[in-house]
MFS transporter (Sphingopyxis witflariensis), 465 residues
Amino acid sequence: MAAQSAGSGTLESIDHPPAVSPPWPRPAYSWYVVGVLLLAYTLSFIDRMILSLLVAPIRAALDISDTQVSLLIGLAFALFYTLLGLPLAWIADRYNRRNLILVGIVVWSFMTAGCGFAGSYATLFAARMGVGVGEATLSPAAYSMLSDYFPRDKLARAMAVYSIGVPLGAGIALILGSFVVQAVLTAPMIEVPFFGAMDAWRLIFVWVAAPGLLIALLMFTVREPLRRGRRAVAPVANASTTPAPGLLAHLREQRVALGALFAGMSLIGLVMYGAIAWIPTFFARTYGMGVGEAGLWFGIIMAIGGTIGLLAGGALADRLYAKGVADAHLRVMRLSILLGGPPLIAAALMPDSTLAFVMLAIAYPCMTMHGVGGVALQLITPNEYRARMTALYFFVVNLIGLGFGPMLIALLTDYLFEDDAMLRYSIATVAGIALPAAAAILTWGFKGFSRDLARMSAEAESAPA
């Protein structure tokens, strides 16, 4: 059958698969790879969020409307990030994943810097598209690589550490934003060697892009791992293992488990993306707090609480899985809702800002335990499709969560409650409906997931390394 070589993107023929799988990479080196990918993921979130912190100076410089800014923040990035993630994941499933990520880091870093030199709305829009294209290379390839660096009973912890890049990057961006706004207001122009006077907001794009080139150099120290358990995508004469089904056949075959994962995570994302978008404004409208101050405290909660939650969720999922709980990862996702949902809803209804922040500090570590969903997806996906399934997963979750979460809360405020001061009830309503629905859907998927995992485990044991 055909198997991918460890160090290149070429396919080599293996007529006699080895009886014993080769050893896993040294744990110290595997965790080093996780660290490098975490740095890349953290930077990617800072680069994608930084524009939303500079709305006022960009509007003034380019003479554009709120609607045009919203397109830069959302559509220009998200559309290309999600759509191009699918063909880029096809490349990741066939060729060198390390090299794909390296190129992506360079592309999104240059495009982030390019945002600072954009002279018109059209060029800024194009630069944001480029940021989305570059970042689309990262997670599908990273998930696939980590699945080949860590055995199944340790994979959740590894991916949890990698996923810390989400709350850490978002938290850093919010914290940075509280100081950036003041800096831009106090020093609107900065003298730069060789370029002369530049708007401060333009230089900020260059500053946040620069570390990307250092991380790209670090990627050269990461080796492309051996693809384990790779099966033929079509029947091969004298093959000793079951060939992998076509991707569409795989989707049909595992429709219950995948449906629970995709729908459950999408509903969780609906709440989490909506909260990230509106909580600073909620504190301003409800308690009269400055948006910058609210963003600072919320950013700290996201960075610290998100890190704690992801690590706890990964450790718990690995422990349950090692004890033979087949649906451990879905159970941890449901637990995150049961523990984090009530304080998240309560935060929107608290009588003062201090209690609201306390509720958020309790909710966020619990809610971010759901990050093990990506691990569950890897466990029931053949090696041949891991990157593409991850890209499809991110496409659905981001489209529903990022695309509709913030908008749904806004629609309830504008058209149901018809009062800006009622934003707190919009947040509570969306969370109060979406989270119980997500918990029910995940529970429905337990049996299907366990069944598909058992079949995949049996096939993996019989497949060559």
Notes: The domain at 27-228 is CATH 1.20.1250.20 (Growth Hormone; Chain: A;). The first helix runs from residue 27 to 49. DSSP finds 20 helices and four strands in the chain. Strands lie at 2-4, 11-13, 189-192, 196-199.
